[in-house]
Write a structure and sequence with these properties.
The protein is of the alpha+beta class. 32% of the residues lie in helices and 18% in strands. The chain has 28 helices and 33 strands. Strand 30 and strand 31 form a beta hairpin. The radius of gyration is 35 Å and the shape is globular. The two termini are 56 Å apart. 41% of the residues are buried.
Length: 939
Amino acid sequence: MNTPDTTPASYRYTSALASDIEQRWQDRWDAEGTFEAPNPVGDLAGDVAGDKYFIMDMFPYPSGAGLHVGHPLGYIATDVVGRYRRMRGDNVLHALGYDAFGLPAEIHAVQTGEHPRTNTVSNIANMRRQLRRLGLAHDPRRSFATIDPEFVRWTQWIFTQIFDSWYDEALGRARPISELVAEYESGARRAPDGATWANLEPIERKILIDSVRLAYVDESPVNWCPGLGTVLANEEVTADGRSERGNFPVFPRNLRQWKMRITAYSDRLIDDLERVDWPDSVKNMQRNWIGRSHGARVSFQIEGLATPIDVFTTRPDTLFGATYVVLAPEHALVERLTTESWPADTPRQWTNGTATPTEAVAAYRAMAAAKTDLERQENKDKTGVFTGSFAINPVNGEQVPVFIADYVLTGYGTGAIMAVPSGDQRDFEFAESYGLPIVRTVEQPEGHEGAFSGEGLAINSANGDLDLNGLGVGEAKTAMITWLQQHGAGEGTTTYRLRDWLFSRQRYWGEPFPIVYDELGQPHALPDSMLPVELPEVPDYSPKTYAPDDANSEPEPPLARVPEWVNVVLDLGDGPRPYRRETNTMPNWAGSSWYELRYADPHNSDRLVDPENESYWLGPRGAGDTGGVDLYVGGVEHAVLHLLYARFWHKVLFDLGHVSSEEPFRKLFNQGYIQAYAFKDERDVYVPADEVEERDDAFWFEGKQVSREYGKMGKSLKNVVTPDDMYDAYGADTFRVYEMSMGPLDVSRPWETRAVVGAQRFLQRVWRLLVDEDTGELLVDDAELETATLHVLNVTIEGVRGDMENMRFNTAVAKLIELTNHLTKDGVRGRAAVEPLVLMLAPLAPHLAEELWLRLGHSGSLTHEPFPVADPAHLAAASVTCVVQVLGKVRGKIEVSPEISDEDLTALALAEPNVVRSIDGREVRKIIVRAPKLVSIVV
């Protein structure tokens, strides 16, 4: 790493001079409010001339470790876009807040006893310092953290809006609960059982209304970890069914939890993906996560049982091939279907060697409960057990055995499947293991073995008034669904993989729910006047923990230990009454589900966002446009959680009339990652990467050879390089230019500290072009530019503009290097060339550009100076280089006019002295001319 040059008298562009320039300009930008974006109305109102452009980075979490050089990649890219857009004349909104609730701060609090707010505020201050040194052009007036009381207030307010809403399927949108109540009161709507509103008791009315709210309390299967004393999200549980933190066992439990009815929006969340400018990969991830499937619900009747087994299938055309039914072990009908003894002639492999179905089912259910869903899906050995009951296939009346098997999950579809071994590989393997029939219902390619799930004509699919034979899949599906509906055996339907959003956490460091419960345990939302509900002080930040294997233990969140906060007397409109507060907190996803709106109107205390400000920054641009943030940049790891949740919240707010935009983010861009080499010694232990030496094609640490691997930068791999290191060694502008030049922005790339010096040398050449390193005097003159330089300059301008528009910053840097080299080589210092160079460099290296712009005699910041525009008259080359080949080898190069004819080019090529020597009097048999760039001669 370079040693900073701190010589005060030096005018050489070193890290010391860069640091001085950068910090001076950062102070000036702050003092002058250079990057403040005006709003149409409110406390930030101002002149909103020009087109608006709203840029966002994905919410950063303020880690105690601070930033490493991989973190700023996206921040630098959005800053380059914002600076370029300002030079195009746009009114740019670019700000950065902090996603400050979450588990890391809580873990720190548990370990140290320090309040998580104290640690979080300190981390934010450090991160702000690191990001400020990058020179990011953020509007500081719009910054906030999700832990700010005003932000918490509006997060809680949105929750109450969702709680006080229901989804009207007929209209396809959310509506206020008050409108539903009015319909019941007027008699326009009745309860599902036909009862009128007047005939319902008050508690019955509340239960009826609560059952359709978009936010509701429900018994939910959760991942309960006694060793940690908390419920874990699926992402926090390993494939082995243990906690990522602490490696404790995790058990499935049913607990009363808050949920959000995101499933009501399944179709809109899928369909509206067609209307946003997002990467196809992210769209497909969301489609797959929602998992919409069109097919049929089929009812398999059970003799002696009033309730049928309902299954969902996307291939109802294969129903004649259904030779058994499988239930998830947790299915509600399992106990009722399990017989006391085995039917006569039950094959032994169906019984698992047990004396009765009751014993077999109980043992199998216990075994399945010990596995995670992932383990059950990935298990290659298909196991199951017969319940002792048979179901009736509705299309042919045949009795088919009912099994339970762990490869069927209760959370998907109906928790039951009709097994068609000929069309599904899992069913095929199960059928072979258990000796079950395999009936082919679709013609398959000759020689195909195993299950076949592709397209083909129906076979073996006729009975009575139903004959599918010879039909294609589409026709057969339609005919089967029609038959099922006519015979009351099923109906066409659509299912979804998506489940309602589990919204409770048994933790301290999160937004408290604005909910209290009455003496009957019914939830009530607090009025706006009682918001925000703030976190109380607690005696202990850790939840109550238990023996790791105590699966029957009960969660006790930290908030439950503050009885004076939990138990309150409130007047919610019907006089003072005792209530109990919700002691769970919201997940960290809450604040990030709406923060784009806070940027648009950050100090509004009267409403979530002023309609005029929201419409200006996020509103639709025309008919059919969804609206939303103009550019959202972040990692692809948030594709199906944060991005899906934010879309859901935004759509609810749109339905309720709080926003004009249907989507939060109009355009999404996923940046790649910066990775780094890590090194291990003979003990397989990581060693500090910055202390490893490379020599003799090997790597050495403290005199011993170490192995090298390539992966994500992080503390555990001891390969972290911080931005602070780069600022000290090279300056922020060099760091910015290097990161932007490493490769395409959407591709991951390796970090190489030694390569940073290349970016520094480029900026030093730009500096030397304008400034005398000995005296500091300006070297620029007013000489007219020659034709060749005008051509190179204008081609560069045209190319860099295109690269900026399409976020191809690596190629923009390459073009600027070429231009700088050309000017340096030819000794060109004309103002007409260097001023456009400085302006084009400004988005990438803003501090250096500002300093040079000042030295060029301009008093103000170049932030809003117009970005250069190419002169079409100088884009066409005055001459091009033609390569002349003889027998495939290059023997000469000649400068020719771009408009030269084939005949003239041939004549010049044959006259070129080196070509003449190569031909050496031999007969020319053929000449291939590709004017103006190639002549190939065959002798």
